[in-house]
Amino acid sequence: MKTIIVPVDFSQQSEYALKVAVSLAKKHGAKILALHMLELNQAIITSTEGFYPEQTVFLIKLAEKRFKEFLEKPYLEGVEVKPIIKHYKVFSEVNEVAKEHGAELIVMGSHGADGLTEIFVGSNAERVVRNADVPVIVVKDEMAGFKIDRFVFACDFKLENLSAFKRAKAFAEMLSAEFNLVYVNTPGDNFLSTGDAYERINTFLHKANSSDEVSIHNDYSVERGVLNYCETNGADAVGIPTHGRKGLSHFFMGSIGEDIANHSKIPVITFKISD
């Protein structure tokens, strides 16, 4: 891993993300691109009137000053951090910056869930996930000395998830992390017998040219099964497949992807399904 992008909005959550990125950067010798999306009105940027360019310059200078103060933290010592300011708050730009700089990972802060309010859905983090071709780590809390030794990838092992699986496996190899695969079997319409479950899994692994083992975990819901499996097996992070057009709701059925991202105590890493 050589380059990590951290979108920064100067919130506590973006600092949590920055700290996670620093832990990974120190372990893998990577540099960090701290990216701030400066929300400017299109009329301000394009106007030929004298006032607007001056206002634009003022706002950019103000952001630069705030950025400088934000990045003056002791934990950043020994890590190369490059601040980048973009003029528009367009979340597809995060992916464009990743492509331009060859970044392998985006680390994004999110509020997650607060009681009954699901903040992740429709949030900045969810928008970045929709557009990102590289893995995105969603961080909600402070995680001192974060590292990924054991990585769980949860999947329904339908063939459409092959590209996400390959990205997740490559990610685990890049971090030298133990790669655990889990299929969650639930009661109701989606229930599979042991034989049917292994038939689907074996077909998937054959297509992926993989000899990895898969655990079948039985639970009352996919979300609960994924989270319980991760807790029982001491996972440091959990990966789920996502679809650019449909966001996290493409994972399994309904809003399971959002539920996992909202309620997981460990960072969630998303891997895009190729269109």
TrEMBL record:
Pfam families: Usp
Domain UspA span(s) in chain numbering: 1-140, 149-271
Top-level lineage group: Bacteria
InterPro entries: Rossmann-like_a/b/a_fold, Universal_stress_UspA, UspA
Family label: Belongs to the universal stress protein A family.
Protein name: Nucleotide-binding universal stress protein, UspA family
Organism: Pseudozobellia thermophila
